[in-house]
Amino acid sequence: MQQPTRLKPVTRLAAATLISLGTLACSALHAQAGDFTISSPDLASGSFDNKFVLNGFGCKGDNVSPALEWKNVPPGTKSLSLLVHDPDAPTGSGFWHWTVLNMPASTTGLPQGAGNSAATLPAPAFGGNTDFMDTGATGANGNYGGPCPPTGDAPHHYHFTLYAVGVEDVQKAAGVPKTGSAALYSFVLNKGIGPGLLGTATFTATYGR
C-alpha cells in the first residue's frame, strides 16, 4: 500500500501562510462591510433631553423626535422600518412610542423632527400607529410620542430598532392594514416576513423622572 505523502516543512509553512492570509482577507472584508448600526446624535448621552420628552400626561417636554443615523445597511435591502418601544412601561406589553414604515433602502437617517410631520418622511414612508393613538397627547404633532414614564419609576429603556427587509412594502407583503398596531408590525417584521428580514440594528436610551 502506498504511504500517504507527508507535507515537507516548507509545504506546511506555505499552507499555514495561505490559511492565515485567507483569515486576514475574511477579516478585512468583514471590517470593510462593517456592522449594521443605528445611533442618534441627539441622544449621544444615552438619555433624553427635555426637548425630546412628551408634552402631556404630566410631562412638559417639547416632544420633538430625535435625529437618527444608520450605516452599513445589509445587501439586498429594499426598505427600512423603525420601531421605538419601552419594555418597562407598566402595561404588561410595554409601550410603543414611534413607528416609521417603508423607508427607501437608500435612506441613511432621519432629521430631528421627522416624526412630527408626515411631510418630512422620505417617500413612500409613513408613520404607523403608536400607543398614543386616540389619547390626544401628540395631537397633530405627527406620530412621535416622547418618553413620559410614571414619576418615581426607575429610568425606562427606550429601544430604537431599525429593520432592513427584502420587500419594498411591508404592509402589502404581509397583508396587514396600514392602520395596524405597532405590535402587529413588530410581529410582521420580526417573524411574519420570514427570510425577508435581512438584519436589525438597535440602540437604547433611558429616561426617568
Walk me through this protein's architecture.
It contains 3 helices and 10 strands. The longest helix has 25 residues, at 9-33. By secondary structure, the chain is an alpha+beta fold. The radius of gyration is 23 Å and the shape is globular. Strands 8-6-5-9-10 form a 5-stranded antiparallel beta sheet, with helices on one face. A 3-stranded antiparallel beta sheet has the order 1-4-7, with no helix packed on it. Residues 4-32 have low confidence and may be disordered. The chain has a single domain, classed as Phosphatidylethanolamine-binding Protein, CATH 3.90.280.10. The termini are far apart.
Descriptive labels:
alpha+beta, 5-stranded antiparallel sheet, 209 residues, 3 helices, Phosphatidylethanolamine-binding Protein
Short description:
The chain is of the alpha+beta class and 209 residues long. It has 3 helices and 10 strands.
Q: How is the topology of this model organized?
A:
Layout: H1 9-33, E1 37-39, E2 55-56, E3 59-60, E4 68-71, E5 79-86, E6 95-104, E7 109-110, E8 126-127, E9 156-165, H2 170-174, H3 182-192, E10 197-207
Antiparallel strand pairs: 1-4, 2-3, 4-7, 5-6, 5-9, 6-8, 9-10
Percent range for β-strand residues: 25-35%
Rounded to an integer in angstroms, the radius of gyration calculated over CA atoms is: 23 Å
In one word, what is the shape?
A: globular
Q: Indicate the multimeric state.
A: single chain
What spatial order of strands do you see in the largest sheet? 8-6-5-9-10
The fourth-level CATH homologous superfamily is: PEBP-like
Per DSSP E runs of 2 or more residues, the count of β-strands stands at 10
